[in-house]
Amino acid sequence: MTEAGGSAGPIGAAHARYAPGTPCWVSLMAHGLTATQEFYGELFGWEFRPGPQQLGPYVRALLDGREVAGIGQLPPDRHLPVAWTPYFASDDVDTTAETVRLCGGTVGVGPLDASDAGRLAIGSDPSGAVFGVWQAAAHVGTTITGVPGTPAWNELTTYEAASVRKFYETVFGYEETVVSADFDHVTLHVAGRPVAGIHGVGAALPRDRGPHWTTYFEVADTDAALSLVVDLGGRVLEPAQDSEHGRVASVADLEGARFSVVQAPR
After folding, report:
1. Residue 73: beta bridge partners?
2. CB of 93 within 8 A of CB of 87?
3. Mean pLDDT in the chain?
4. How far apart are CA 161 and CA 198, in angstroms?
5. Where is the signal peptide (predicted)?
6. Single pTM value for the model
7. Which CATH architecture best describes the domain 1-266?
8. Is pLDDT at 7 greater than 70 in this prediction?
9. Cβ contact 228:222 at 8 Å
10. 187 φ/ψ angles, rounded to the nearest 5 degrees
């Protein structure tokens, strides 16, 4: 993880269109929409309102009246992994989707219109990690960042960073990537700003998960957030630990969707 909060701009900023390649939205597809809303509403203080229904029942999470994330309901007959998916901004989702295919990735959903909100595709990189692509229209994406309850960072955990770095550079046009000298980590930049990370862990990658993106949400107090996660029926996967980026922990919600929480350094 690098520079939590760097992915979306100034604290509390009202966002214009995101630059291509910038994570602009996170979305969760779950089986129990009502219970999932209650979990995240209690944990992050989110309120909800209906969103585009092209992929089934879907709500947008709001914080102080501004859009933060989306939660949709999986069809009962679809036994898909319940997971948070980051969406990367694109000026032309059809072209981006074609580039994904040409670079060895796959496109599983779309491109398709989400009402007047925008146009989307959901795909995976050559290693199988799932991500979304968003071309904004009426809906630009996450409109508040840098406060508790908002996405702070997105990190890809994969076998080897170098093997997928070129894919993301080609698909999203990252003009600068910074390779860590200490471990297998690459930080992706847009306009000189760090926006996402790629972490290679080799054989330590869980076999039951494979390569995957993880969303970090900012919290005011990591330890208090962990207690609340457990009280709400979730699980702590990795206990809180201090890092140069803040106090971080990994958790899972009611249905097993994994995410991380981070308390900014004081």
Report:
1. 30
2. no
3. 91
4. 6
5. none
6. 0.92
7. Roll (3.10)
8. no
9. no
10. -105, 125
For residue 134, name the pLDDT band (cuts at 50, 70, 90): very high
Three-state SS for 176-242 is EEEECCCCCEEEEEECCEEEEEEEECHHHCCCCCCCEEEEEEECCCHHHHHHHHHHCCCEEEEEEEE
**Helix 161-172 vs helix 93-102: crossing angle, to nearest 10:** 150
Distance CA 218, CA 247 (A): 10
Q: What is the per-residue pLDDT for 16?
A: 65
Q: Long-range contacts made by residues 221-230, C-beta under 8 angstroms, separation at least 24?
A: 221/263, 222/246, 222/247, 222/248, 222/249, 222/261, 222/262, 222/263, 223/247, 225/43, 225/249, 225/251, 225/261, 225/263, 226/251, 226/261, 228/42, 228/43, 229/43, 229/253
Q: What count of other Cβ atoms lies within 10 Å of the Cβ of residue 49?
A: 10
Domain limits of the chain?
1-266
CB atoms within 10 A of CB 191: 10
Q: Is the model's pLDDT at 210 over the cut of 70?
A: yes
